[in-house]
Amino acid sequence: MNELPQQLVNGLLLGSMYGLVAVGYTMVYGIVQLINFAHGEIFMTGGFGALTVWLILPGGTSMWVALPLMIIGAVIVATTIAVGAERFAYRPLRGGPRLAPLITAIGLSLALQYAVWVWYPEAKSARTFPQIPGGPIELGPVTIQTGDVFLVIAAPICMAFLAFFVMRTRTGRGMQATAQDPDTAKLMGVNTDRIIVIAFALGAIFAAVGAVAYGLKYGVVDYKMGFLLGLKAFTAAVLGGIGNIYGAMIGGLVLGVAETMATAYVDQIPGMEQLGGQSWANVWAFVLLIVVLLARPQGLLGERVADRA
Amino acid sequence: MTTTTTKADATAEPAARETVLDARGVTMRFGGLTAVRDVNLTVNSGEIVGLIGPNGAGKTTFFNCLTGLYVPTEGEVRYKGQVLPPKSFKVTAAGIARTFQNIRLFNNMTVLENVLVGRHTRTKEGLWSALLRGPGFKRAEAASEKRAMELLEFIGLADKAQHLAKNLPYGEQRKLEIARALASDPGLILLDEPTAGMNPQETRAAEELIFAIRDMGIAVLVIEHDMRFIFNLCDRVAVLVQGQKLIEGDSQTVQSDERVIAAYLGEPIDETPKAAAPAEDAAPAAGDTTEDAAETEADADAPAEDEAPADDAPAEEGTPADDAPAEDASDADDDTPADAADAAKDAAPGKENDA
Amino acid sequence: MTTISENPQAPAAAAPAKTADRGLIGLLPERTARAVVLAGAALTVASCFLSWTWTPRFPGDLTVYGYPAGLQLQVLVTGVLTVLFALSSYGVKGLGWLTPAGADGAIKFGALATFGTAWFTVAAISVQLGGPVNLEPGGVVLAVATLVTLLAALDLPFKRPAVLPVDPEDTRWDQHKQSRRNRWTAVKAAFAAPHAVKKLPPLPSAVEILIIAVVLGLALSVFTYGIGTEYDELFLGFLITAGLGFAAIGASGLLKQATQLTSKHQNLSIAGAFIAAALFPFTQTDDQYATLGVYILIFATVALGLNIVVGLAGLLDLGYVAFLGVGAYAAALVSGAPTSPFGVHFPFWAAILVGAAASVVFGVLIGAPTLRLRGDYLAIVTLGFGEIFRITVMNTDGTSGPDITNGSNGIASIPNLNLFGFDFGQPHTIAGFTIGRFANYFFLMLLITAVVVLVFRRSGDSRIGRAWVAIREDETAALAMGINGFRVKLIAFALGAGLAGLAGTVQAHVTYTVTPEQYLFAGPIPPNSAFLLAAVVLGGMGTMSGPLVGAALLFLIPNKLQFMGEYQLFAFGVALVLIMRFRPEGIIADKRRQLEFHENDDTHEPAATPAKAGA
């Protein structure tokens, strides 16, 4: 059982990636009450944006030069798509029937996936993603793989930035106001259209960073990666209390740890020997979602939403 | 079960006066904010009770406590002696129906279907009987439809039964909402601003409709902004200010209460024209003499009472208060708010005891 | 295509502005235009008997004089329609019944349909054979005649709707948008039916029933023709012809009259539709198209089941195919298939019960925790469930997990059904027609479809169905009407799951094998959750015939248009977005929504779903 700290760290790393993507779900949901199913695909296009930058750069470029450019590329691609989707697909439906934007989101999600599949060179199977040079880092009992180093650094920075943005800036406060009551916020002079665009864009930025982290962690990006990860990021958002930005990060961490622990230890529970291992990880993540919805539907930090509903 | 109760009510109504709704010490807190504080309110059968108050006074919150949308933090709400269940659909099943401030019809259903949805609690047919379509199902559907058509006849929309609800003009949508609420055979109907956005003719028609509902033996609780409407209509009026019940009594009592005037109209400068407005409107020529104004008020009330033959209780309450409008009107006419306040203060304590 | 074709039903009947008696393009005066339309259409018809190209290399052999074939037939049909509409507009005796809503809208659509199919053909010939030189004179005549007809048709006057004038103080972009919107309104009005549909004169019911039979027969032949199209060009031409031709008939008002009739004799029409569908295998000589037919039926039936959940109750179920999978796996496991670890062989009725019951159980397990919450949660949980079902089935192969489903190999060699001594695996000869294996299953599946149609109609038009729609429309108000929202939603969800499971039990036997990869969220082969949802949305949420039509289209389009290949799913996603943007009610609008357009129409029965020939 002395692998426990290692598993815990693995879980936290996985979870912080979920958290990065979950922020996008929760922010958009908090403001327009829309589950942006296409967010997983925005994450995926971010990954391909980063890969494209790497492919354009001359061979042999140092990863230390390339990585920032790749992040920028990922952010540009993901943000453009997210903002475009908001402007041309979601905005015209605002105030319409409840199902319409959800179905649009599914359509977008399929279109993005298969656009990459059809047109991105050699994207029909997974494409290798460049790696940071260097070996794993040993910290006492815990080893952090090279691919995870980026996550260790990027996730806290992103969250700190987000906290600053939401609490301290005018736009951030406008965002909170819109989330509380869009109509009143509008009357108070908050440009809600702009706020919504910003929410989509911010979500996309975080998803893009998450996608770079994903590429570095697993060494590949592929057109399908957004589907399951998006699903789990949404689970994380629900877990933390959808609409609550900090909740998304915490939900991500909880989900990551729970999933890792389930993968590692479920097969040691008598009677469940056959239900452990990586192939069941997604099942356990999903079971957790159901359990949370049953026990605490408002999520871990989600009191505000419960009041509103 | 409740169906029979309601019918029994309808026949027994003139004889005995039963307490339909009994809210005791209702308090509703959201976090640190107390939206409603210790409100008592009773509604008796055959009675129309009004609930007024300035914006943000907690009317809607109180309404939501009555309809099961909120569970009061403290206090309890009883309907015919039973504590209300905390789910809005159970409240409806128990016998309280409601309408909404912003019309909430089922837009893409026909007028008839809207009313049929209102029959939901009074019918039992489940999925299986719908699939098997036995004679019982057909009988129940036919009965529901008959009742729904009766109600549409009652509100005058029978010829539009097949129209989509969203295509009705505004006033008819309001009426349809009432018909839909009546379809659940309620013992008490809660109307949330039934005349909002209506023109004077429509308002008058709504008034008639509400009297007719009362005459069906259904108690009515109305939230309203239109003061004249509510004072014409209601046997009793309760005023909610900042989450607390300020006063309760018949129209005249409430109308003359200086705290109500203050709470409603805020600035004393605005006070006089608006306070006098109902009277002046009713009798445009009688702007000068206090007696005229008072009489007009009384006249306006009189036909309402005539229409309801068994209005003993309100009449009793009304008798002492009959003096009040005279006092009030005379003071108001002097254009001295301070005097009006004094006069009303004198009258107030006694009334509060009554309530 | 569909967007345009449905214009006549759009509420374009805005108040007429100053009666500007000119057409959309205004080249010719009305009388000349009408004459040119008639002449052009007649010429088009004539050109169908000419040779269009010199070589039979273009599929369908369009070289023969006097004998229209392939695409020529399609142009011929629309051409004849246009001629008839034009004659009707001249008031020719005995043709007035063709245009109960006025002829001009129908003429315009007819001309457009003819033009579309003809020019598609001309373009296809030119592209495939390398240039317009490959056109014979007949082809040139066709191209010119159809173009002239269309231009003349657009000269026919119409009531111009009142439009918002462009505000000169707006930004240039806003001005542009406004004028574009105005132009679009004008185009819509140009294609709209000139006046309201005349009511059908009272006819003896025998005649009415005869008309219904003819309509159903026509529908069957159109469908049979479509399913039997042998090459891409013919199918594309069919889509253009059928889509715009349908619009023309819609604009003429015939469609509405037919709907009036079918809703008057609703049960009869539905029964007739099923008889027509049952006749389908008899129109086929081999089992090839019966195979398509049975797959379409499976897809359509499941889509109709989903429509209860999505269309009536407004619950977005994104993992619906998993319930089909649960039913299919349950049936496969008890079918006596050699790869099933249970090794039991239940009779079919028991297998059906097991399949449906298993799906209902899963439906309740998924629904109970989520249906108490906001609707969005259900969407994501069902999406997750769909994925988890697949993963679990994949894992329970004996190595990654318990040995139940044989992992990715699936359960193979599911035996054919044998009901009352009728072996579904063997061809049978009925009245001289050989009915093959798939045709056998086609009949069985038709029975299941009938069950689902019955359930859909009866539940939809009842206390519980009204409760579903009420919840969909406004949940708070529905609760205030005394509806136990959770309970009612759970019933809808479980019922939907059960119907999918029911279809799954048959599907398992039709396909011989069930594998996890048949039950994806999105994939190239139709019964998957995304396609099911699309069939419902495209066809029309909350309607009965909508999902049936939508499913048939969504099955045939990828099946027939092989060249779309890898773009298919992309196109599909884009189509979903566009439908939601421009025609959220789908091809067949809910009767409840249709009511908007003819409010004072007494012939409509309450709460009735449109009964049109679907399958």
Fold and architecture overview:
The complex is a heterotrimer of chains A (309), B (355) and C (615). Chain A has a domain at 9-223. Chain A is 72% helix and 3% strand. Chain A contains twelve helices and four strands; from the N terminus they run ααααβββααααβαααα. Chain A has helices spanning 4-32, 39-56, 63-90, 99-119, 146-168, 170-180, 182-187, 192-218, 225-240, 245-265, 281-295, 303-308, and strands spanning 127-128, 137-139, 142-144, 220-221. In chain A, strand 2 (137-139) and strand 3 (142-144) form a beta hairpin. In chain A, helix 3 packs across helix 8 (192-218), helix 5 (146-168) packs across helix 6 (170-180) and helix 6 (170-180) packs across helix 8. Chain A is globular and about 55 Å long. The model of chain A is unreliable at 304-309 (pLDDT under 50). Chain B is of the alpha/beta class and 355 residues long. Chain B folds into three domains: 1-95 and 185-249, Rossmann fold, CATH 3.40.50.300; 105-169, no CATH class; 269-355, no CATH class. In chain B, 52% of the residues lie in helices and 17% in strands. Chain B is built from 16 helices and ten strands. In chain B, the strands form two sheets. In chain B, strands 6-7-8-3-9-10 form a six-stranded mixed β-sheet, sandwiched between helices. Chain B has a four-stranded antiparallel β-sheet with strand order 2-1-4-5, covered by helices on one side. In chain B, helix 12 packs across helix 13 and helix 15 (323-333) packs antiparallel against helix 16 (337-354). The two termini of chain B are 33 Å apart. Chain C is mainly α and 615 residues long. Chain C has two domains: 2-166 and 183-263, no CATH class; 265-597, Orthogonal Bundle (ABC transporter involved in vitamin B12 uptake, BtuC), CATH 1.10.3470. Helices cover 60% and strands 2% of the residues of chain C. Chain C has helices at 2-5, 30-47, 71-89, 104-129, 137-154, 172-191, 205-228, 232-252, 254-264, 266-279, 288-312, 320-333, 348-370, 375-395, 437-460, 463-473, 475-480, 485-511, 529-539, 545-560, 568-582, 591-594; strands spanning 418-419, 422-423, 428-430, 433-435. Chain C has a two-stranded antiparallel sheet. Chain C has a two-stranded antiparallel sheet with strand order 3-4. In chain C, helix 4 packs antiparallel against helix 5 (137-154) and helix 11 runs parallel beside helix 15 (437-460). Chain C is globular, with a radius of gyration of 26 Å. Residues 1-19 and 593-615 of chain C have low confidence and may be disordered. Chains in contact: A-C, B-C. The interface between A and C is large, with 49 and 48 residues. Chain B: Residues 21-267 form the ABC transporter domain. Chain B: Residues 342-355 have a biased composition (Basic and acidic residues). Chain B: Residues 274-288 have a biased composition (Low complexity). Chain B: Residues 271-355 are annotated as: Disordered. Chain B: GO terms for molecular function: ATP binding.
